[in-house]
Design a protein that fits this description.
The structure holds two protein chains of two kinds. In chain A, 23% of the residues lie in helices and 33% in strands. Chain A is of the alpha+beta class. In chain A, the strands form four sheets. Chain A has a six-stranded mixed beta sheet, with helices on both faces. Chain A has a five-stranded antiparallel beta sheet with strand order 13-12-11-14-20, with no helix packed on it. Chain A has a five-stranded antiparallel beta sheet with strand order 15-19-16-17-18, with no helix packed on it. In chain A, strand 11 and strand 12 form a beta hairpin. By secondary structure, chain B is mostly helical. Chain B has two domains: 24-60, no CATH class; 70-274, MetI-like fold, CATH 1.10.3720.10. Chain B is 74% helix and 0% strand. Chain B starts with 9 loop residues before the first helix and ends with a helix. Classes of the chains: A alpha+beta, B mainly alpha. The interface between A and B is medium-sized, with 25 and 18 residues. The structure holds adenosine-5'-triphosphate and magnesium ion. Magnesium ion binds at residues 57-58, 173 of chain A.
């Protein structure tokens, strides 16, 4: 659609470039909300900021939107330095966490607001407002007060209002957190569709790892004002750089190991070839094994298999989680997909099994 | 005057109820009687057909007719309305600006100081302000020879500001600042943010402030009495003057009229401040 009109040469310029940005809130106690953050967000990307509460996600969005100036560093939009531009001069719109709809205007009035401020002709405003109302399926409620519609509907209006001026970048601060699970799933799909249809760069904030994994082209994992890792959902999940990232996303087993060259020897036994991330030296390391990347077999371990004693079995319909203790005392959780009749393949509690790992299942962590 | 947005149900949170205190009902009843019985009597006797303030001689509107026909009353009433309109309007504009400055600008040194200064007329005894104004204005009047309504207008505006300020500030404090951020995000300039979002949302607070200031100005005796020049009686000072001579139910009639006007304005004020956005 719209991106077809962009010249090809522009596609290698990133949409948003955050360059060594720090944000310090002065006060009785200085807060370093962002600490030397650099990230470059591509055009048309669905980019997600993921991290625990208070890690600086909202602060980074507020800096990009222009509500706060950076203490250090610069922000660029399409190659242009925007660090000093006020919010009303940035072609960036925000969907606020609490929606911030204007209570004294109708649904249509809210959506028209940005276009009116841009001084668009009346006919164009009417046309765009109609199109936006259709896009978010709110036409029947166009004349309602925003206080007279449901939370999910408010969320759609907030989205339509931010999309109407067709910004270059859309910032979404946990827009789904107030919705119930069913609506949330629906809106996740709808957001992806909207992003695809409009060709606008989305920067999305969430602290829900599953939401981040299912929706994003790339994810930046943040902690305490820093970006720990940027990568595709698969990168982040399968090749987390640090223990924090691995722990924050998905379930993890951490095992002690010894690294020599590109071989790790688990303390619990077994030698494995691994790809070693930059900056990890030979010696004691910890490795990550996802619960679904290990498998279990009844009987004595042979070759690269490790002996483990079953401590607990948790059945959850599609999968079964098995908690095991290794000879070293380390605890490991293994998740196996359930097939018909798979229930008698393993011995019961206290039984010994042989544990093996899929190729590439062992990830060496940086810390 | 208390801030209506603030005196929340603190007493309810306590573990005991004042209702169980011995004598509570009696004290409450006594207070109500002392407060309202004289007013009831005043209102009743304003409709008395006779001249007496103590003997009921039948219903009549003659004192209202007399008050309306009295040129001095007309003159004083118009002056009161004019003074209250100008003072409340100017005072409300000033209060609006003060409220914006104390809630919508980043904390600045001296903000608490400004807050205290704006509210100062609520703390200083009115008689002190009155005497101070009398001394200053008397000097200015002698020096310039100018004796227009300007002195009353200035004095009334000054004490109108804090009364208008309180509801406006209360309104601004409950308003979500992310609405203004959203407007700026949607390309509104600073002025447009104010014009299209802040002002419409704070409007009930402004009207409430205006009403309150208007009633306060309409009602003022002490400062007016000290500041006014000859022939500048407002309704309250006219009544005070009359009371020194002969008391007729005409005074009751005027009082009742002011009471009704004040009650209407104060009810409007509460409707505006109580209503949730
Ligand atoms: N205006 C401010 N003044 C002082 N400190 C602030 C301010 N805004 C944010 N902070 C602090 O900066 C840190 C990051 O806050 P931020 O709101 O960006 O977190 P977040 O990642 O969005 O968290 P959440 O998931 O809870 O929304 C926090 O420690 C917060 O207390
Ligand atoms: Mg936040």
């Amino acid at each position: 659609m719209d991106q077809l009109t962009h010249p090809d040469s522009a596609s290698d310029i990133s949409a948003v470039e955050v360059n060594r940005v720090s944000k310090i809130f002065a006060g009785e106690q200085e807060v370093r909300a962002l600490d030397d953050v650099s990230v470059s967000i591509r055009r048309n990307e669905f980019f997600t900021l993921l991290g625990p509460s208070g890690c600086g996600k909202t602060t980074l969005l507020r800096l990009i939107a222009g509500f706060e100036p950076p203490t250090m560093g610069t922000l660029q939009l399409g190659g242009r330095n925007i660090s000093r531009l006020p919010p009303n001069q940035r072609p960036i719109n925000t969907v606020f966490q609490n929606y911030a709809l204007f209570p004294h205007m109708s649904v249509a009035g809210n959506i028209a607001f940005g276009l009116e401020m841009l001084g668009k002709p009346k006919s164009e405003i009417a046309e765009t407002v109609d199109r936006m109302l259709r896009l978010v399926q709110m036409e029947p409620l166009r004349n309602r007060r925003t206080s007279e519609i449901s939370g999910g509907q408010q969320q759609r209006v907030a989205l339509a209002r931010a999309l109407a001026p067709h910004p270059e970048v859309l910032l979404l601060d946990e827009p789904l957190s107030a919705l119930d699970l069913k609506l949330r799933k629906e809106m996740q799909i709808e957001l992806k569709r909207l992003q695809h249809e409009t060709g606008i760069t989305f920067i999305f904030v969430t602290h829900d790892q599953e939401e981040a994994l299912t929706m994003s082209d790339r994810i930046a994992v943040m902690s305490a004002g820093r970006i720990l890792q940027i990568g595709s959902p698969r990168d982040i999940y399968e090749r987390p750089a640090e223990r924090f990232v691995a722990n924050f996303i998905g379930e993890s087993n951490f095992l002690d190991a010894e690294l020599t060259g590109n071989t790790v020897t688990l303390r619990a036994g077994g030698r494995f070839e691994v790809t070693v991330p930059d900056g990890v030296a030979d010696g004691a390391v910890s490795v990550l094994i996802r619960p679904e990347h290990a498998s279990l077999r009844a009987g004595e371990p042979t070759g690269k298999e490790i002996a483990a004693v079953i401590e607990n079995i948790v059945y959850s319909g599609d999968a079964t989680a098995v908690h095991l203790r290794l000879g070293t005392g380390e605890l490991v959780k293994v998740r196996m997909a359930n097939a018909p009749g798979s229930d008698d393949a393993l011995p019961g509690l206290g039984g010994t099994v042989a544990m093996s790992f899929a190729p590439g299942a062992i990830t060496v962590l940086k810390d | 005057m208390t801030d209506p947005a603030r005196d929340a149900p603190t007493s309810k949170a306590r573990g005991y109820s004042v209702r169980t205190l011995p004598g509570f009902a009696i004290v409450a009843l006594f207070t109500f009687v002392v407060l309202y019985a004289p007013i009831m009597i005043l209102v009743t006797y304003s409709f008395n057909a006779g001249t007496s303030l103590a003997i009921w001689e039948g219903f009549s509107l003659r004192w209202y007719q007399r008050a309306i026909a009295n040129e001095q009353v007309q003159d004083a009433a118009l002056r009161s309305l004019y003074l209250a309109t100008v003072a409340a309007s100017v005072g409300t504009v000033a209060a609006t600006m003060a409220a914006l400055a104390t809630t919508r600008i980043r904390r600045f040194p001296g903000r608490t100081m400004i807050y205290a200064l704006v509210n100062q007329p609520l703390m200083v005894p009115e008689i002190v302000t009155a005497v101070a104004l009398l001394i200053v204005f008397a000097a200015v009047k002698v020096w310039t020879g100018h004796t227009s309504m300007i002195y009353l207008i200035v004095a009334h505006t000054a004490f109108c500001v804090p009364f208008a300020y309180l509801p406006i500030r209360a309104r601004l404090e409950t308003m979500d600042t992310s609405l203004e951020a959203a407007a700026a995000d949607l390309y509104a300039s600073r002025w447009q943010v104010f014009r299209r979002v802040t002002l419409p949302l704070m409007w009930p607070g402004i009207v409430a402030g205006l009403l309150l200031a208007f009633v306060i100005s309409l009602d003022d005796v002490v400062i007016t009495e000290f500041v006014k020049s000859a022939g500048q009686d407002t309704l309250p000072t006219y009544m005070l003057g009359q009371l020194r001579r002969v008391v007729t139910p005409e005074i009751n009639a005027i009082s009742t009229a002011i009471l009704v006007a004040g009650a209407i304005l104060v009810s409007l004020f509460f409707m505006l401040t109580m209503r949730k956005r």
